[in-house]
Each structure stands twice: as structure tokens, then as C-alpha cells.
Design goal:
This protein is 48% helix and 13% strand. By secondary structure, the chain is of the alpha+beta class. The chain has a three-stranded antiparallel beta sheet. It is globular. One of its GO terms (biological process) is embryonic pattern specification. Its main location: cytoplasm.
């Protein structure tokens, strides 16, 4: 049995007797257990149970939710820890919209709603600016070339 465990570790670049990194633990098999459902979560120790009542629900475009919460919602845990609110982000309307459910004290829910609304506005504005910038750059470049032709050798 020791050879099997050792070979499993060695396949992941670990030598017996060395301490694995946290990233390495993510790649280890969980004794054949099926992957946990992304919707199944344990309430964090720091979050009071009574604050799970009366959540605040808001909607935004799915691409905005991905910009705010990261690819595969990778930033949710950090946002929850900093804000002291629990978040659930679900894709609805055939993937076009995201439903964001915010749990916490009323003041925390409202603050989180304002933060998310401001981030969504900021990302929309910058998305538009990034979309227009190449066109402006092309027009400027064409204008510059027309008025200042390259020097002939």
C-alpha cells in the first residue's frame, strides 16, 4: 500500500518525506469520492445562521458577473471574507444573466449591492472604452499618415 501512495505522490512531483504545497493538495484524489456540488456549501464558522434569512437578490449580465467574481467564480470566497456577506452566483436565462443572492445583515447586504452595482457600472464603461479605443487609434493613425507621409530616402 505504501508503494501505491508513494507512486501517486511521485506522479504529482512529490518525493516521500517532503511537505506538499496547498496547490498540490488540490490535485490529490479524494479517495474516490465524487466531486462536491458547487451549490452544496457549509456555512462558514464566522457567519451567523440567522443571517441566512431574507436574502437580497439582484441580476446582472453574465459577462459582468464573470469580470467581478473571476473565472469559475474563483474570487467569491475572498469577497465573502472581506465583506462578511455570503454570496451565491447562479447563471440564468440561458447563460445570459447572473442571479446574485446576498446573505447577511441588512447593512452588509445593501453595502454589497452598492459595491456590485458600482463594479458592474465600472466594467461596462471600461468595456465600451476598450471597444472604441482601437477604432479611435485607427482613425488617428490614418489621419497622421495622411498629413505626415513617411520620409522618402
Amino acid at each position: 500500500a505504501g508503494g501505491v501512495a508513494g507512486s501517486s505522490l511521485e506522479k504529482r512531483g512529490l518525493q516521500p518525506g517532503t511537505a506538499p504545497t496547498p496547490a498540490c493538495w488540490l490535485s490529490l484524489p479524494l479517495l474516490g469520492a465524487p466531486p462536491a456540488s458547487p451549490r452544496l456549501r457549509v456555512r462558514p464558522w464566522w457567519f451567523p445562521e440567522h443571517e441566512l434569512e431574507n436574502p437580497l437578490v439582484l441580476y446582472m449580465e453574465a459577462w459582468l458577473a464573470e469580470m467581478i467574481f473571476g473565472p469559475n467564480r474563483s474570487l467569491i470566497s475572498e469577497i465573502e471574507w472581506i465583506s462578511q456577506a455570503l454570496l451565491r452566483v447562479d447563471t440564468v436565462d440561458s447563460g445570459k444573466m447572473a442571479e446574485i443572492t446576498i446573505y447577511g445583515r441588512p447593512s452588509v447586504k445593501n453595502r454589497m449591492k452598492n459595491i456590485l452595482s458600482n463594479l458592474a457600472t465600472w466594467h461596462k464603461e471600461h468595456h465600451v472604452q476598450r471597444g472604441e479605443r482601437p477604432l479611435r487609434t485607427q482613425v488617428l493613425a490614418a489621419h497622421t499618415q495622411a498629413h505626415h507621409p513617411p520620409a522618402q530616402p
